[in-house]
Amino acid sequence: MADIFHEVEEDLRRDQAAAIWKKYGNLLVGAALLLVLAVAAHWGWTKYSTNQQLQASADFLGAAATKDLKARETALGKIVVEGGTYGVLARFRLAETAIEGGDKAKARGILGEIAKDGGPDKALRDLALIQAALLELEIGKPETAADLVKDLTKEGEPYRLSALEVTGLAAVAAGDNAKAKTAFEILKKTADAEAAAGSGFAQRADQMLDRLGN
How far is it, in rounded angstroms, from Cα 73 to Cα 66? Predict the structure, then answer.
């Protein structure tokens, strides 16, 4: 008797499965196909994206390593037009190229554009400010240099140590030893608090404080 009930139950299951397949078979096949296509598309896009990134990296490294300055500028300019992270890095390299070519004013302009651009990451914009400020010091504009980095001297800013050092150097260049001493004292204290990360800054701060008569 139990065997009969089991056979009937199996028949009912087969009938139900057949009915479900007849009613929803096309949808199930379609859903399965969409899932396969989605997985394939995701894999394809990941592979494409990876290849694009590798190509962008290769293009940037090739352009950045070009020895001829004019050819380097041309190659980097194409990468800048393409935008993205490598576009920003290409602009930094263009600034370095301008310095190599003896045009610090041009380099300062490029760095200033990076700092004002809302596209790059804040860390890159801040780095551009630091580099621009250092160029202003070299050009002989300490007040401008100090003004560029004043917001970066605040607590919590990632480039605070560099900004404090620029501030101190700008004060020295401007003949304001009292302001310079204050800046280097803060720099030393902050660098010591950050241990290994700021050891170089602490050493230079000590040297400047010795020169200032501390």
Answer: 9
